[in-house]
Write a structure and sequence with these properties.
- The chain is α/β, with parallel strands linked by helices.
- It folds into two domains: 139 residues, 3-Layer(aba) Sandwich (Rossmann fold); 217 residues, Dihydrodipicolinate Reductase, domain 2 (2-Layer Sandwich).
- It has 13 helices and 15 strands.
- Helix 6 links the parallel strand 5 and strand 6.
- Helix 6 runs antiparallel to helix 12 and helix 10 packs across helix 12.
- The chain is globular.
- The protein starts with 10 loop residues before the first helix and ends in a 13-residue tail after the last helix.
């Protein structure tokens, strides 16, 4: 979103006008953030990174690269561990993550830009509340397990922080709606980490669909993968909690259970107490694109049905191993999500189809993929850098590429799919009331109790 320089209002100016001048005890000289004098201290966005594992460190580095952002705090319940692993980037295996490695990355980054070659201004915390309580922090980046999204987001919004929060936005639909309410109440600038909203290729596909290049949209097919990682055996035994982990804080509002290394770090997403499996992990990206193309960003389907979703039998990893469900919208569009490693994102209409498969755009008629969106047609929100878009919107106080309501609605469909695959029946959904119609059992699955003392 473009805004003229004259209309740009910095986050600092906005807060100062409302609450007086803030203090910044760890401000880096202008020369340390780029060309000397190019970024005035009053124009910088000070940021805290909450959750600095693999993706959290990626996000932190992305914000470090912004010349008008200063990262002043990092936070994680992990002190330092090399037990992280990731299925798509093998180089992460054995790399150290946690609050101490993250603090070193930040301090080294600014030290390289400092005339003295030294910098030690980034503070490391175990408890996210200490980051949120700092008056000198403008924004927070939250990259925690899903059970730890709602509470920090709501507290950060109430504290006047702008928020970048990773997908999937919530653990439950009720938590997502509470996050939306808090962000809207406090006027928070919010970006959901569904970064395909900042992809030229996905934006183009959605514009082609929205402008009728394949006729009236009838069906969307989203193929996700891979399946769950190999789970511990059925006779798994509790393990000693490592000294680098605050396990009780890691669990947070989730039920207390004995520690096992497969419960935490990357594989947390295969436990229903902490996440929704690949349905919400990878599915959040695909559903978000489907919502964008369908023009249903602020609503959802009216029906959801299991098509053969499968759950594991061993009881440790208990999220869906084979995703397969359909959602039907009021406009007649059908969304099907299924486990299909390497499958396409496909849109079918009354006059053709278009799909993206392994980075290649194909269509029928073939001319569709080479079409040009004219000046009088629908042009969707343009962002080419998800992190930069967030920073720009902090300064302008305008809506981001993936605002909280959009993130909530996309994640909600993933939750609906999990509920349908659990209950094994067709469910009717009211997207306005966000309730199932005449189904008490399904409605009880829209929220979960939180372990004391945590609550929304």
């Amino acid at each position: 979103m473009e805004t003229s320089k004259e209309n740009t209002v910095s986050r600092r100016d906005f807060l100062c006008g409302a609450a007086g001048v803030l203090s910044f005890p760890y401000v880096v000289p202008s020369s340390a953030l780029g060309k000397a004098g190019s970024v005035a201290p009053s124009e910088r966005i000070t940021m805290g990174s909450v959750g600095v594992g693999g993706m959290g460190t990626n996000n932190m580095r992305a914000f470090l690269s912004q010349p008008d952002v200063q990262v002043v705090a990092v936070c994680d319940v992990v002190k330092a561990s090399n037990e992280y692993g990731h299925w798509y980037k093998k180089g992460w295996q054995g790399e150290w993550f946690g609050r101490r490695p993250a603090r070193k990355i930040v301090n080294d980054h600014y030290a390289q830009k400092s005339p003295s070659g030294r910098y030690n201004g980034c503070k490391a915390y175990r408890d996210f509340r200490k980051v949120i309580s700092r008056d000198d922090i403008d924004a927070v980046c939250i990259t925690t397990p899903d059970q730890w999204h709602a509470i920090p987001v709501i507290m950060a919004a109430a504290a006047g922080k702008d928020i970048y929060c990773e997908k999937p936005l919530s653990l439950t639909i009720a938590e997502g709606r509470a996050m939306v309410a808090a962000v809207q109440r406090y006027g928070t600038v919010f970006q959901t980490g569904t970064h395909r909203r900042s992809s030229r290729q996905f934006r183009f596909i959605c514009e082609l669909v929205r402008n009728g290049r394949i006729g009236r949209l009838r069906k969307i097919i989203a193929s996700i993968g891979p399946n769950n990682k190999e789970a511990p055996p059925k006779d798994w035994q509790p393990m000693p909690v490592p000294d680098w982990l605050d396990y009780d804080m890691w669990l947070g509002p989730a039920p207390w259970v004995p520690y096992h290394k497969s419960r935490c770090l990357y594989t947390f997403r295969f436990g229903l107490d902490y996440s929704g499996g690949q349905t919400t992990n990878l599915g959040a990206h695909f559903v978000d694109v489907a919502q964008w193309a369908n023009g249903t960003d602020h609503t959802g389907p009216v029906e959801v049905e299991d098509l053969g979703g499968e759950y594991p039998a061993d009881g440790f990893f208990n999220t869906v191993t084979r995703v397969h469900f359909r959602a039907q919208y009021a406009n007649g569009v059908e969304l099907v999500m299924k486990t299909d490693q390497g499958g396409p994102m496909r849109f079918e209409g009354t006059e053709g189809w278009i799909q993206l498969h392994k980075g290649e755009l194909t269509s029928s008629p073939e001319s569709v993929k080479d079409s040009t969106i004219g000046p009088g047609e629908i042009h969707l929100y343009k962002s080419n850098d998800h992190h930069r878009n967030f920073i720009d919107c902090i300064k302008t106080r305008q809506e981001t590429a993936a605002p909280v309501e959009v993130g909530h609605r996309s994640t909600s469909i993933c939750h609906l799919g999990n509920i349908a695959m659990t209950l094994k029946r067709k469910l009717r959904w009211d997207p306005d009331k966000e309730r199932f119609i005449n189904d008490d059992q399904a409605n009880r699955m829209l929220s979960r109790a939180m372990r004391s003392p945590w609550h929304l």
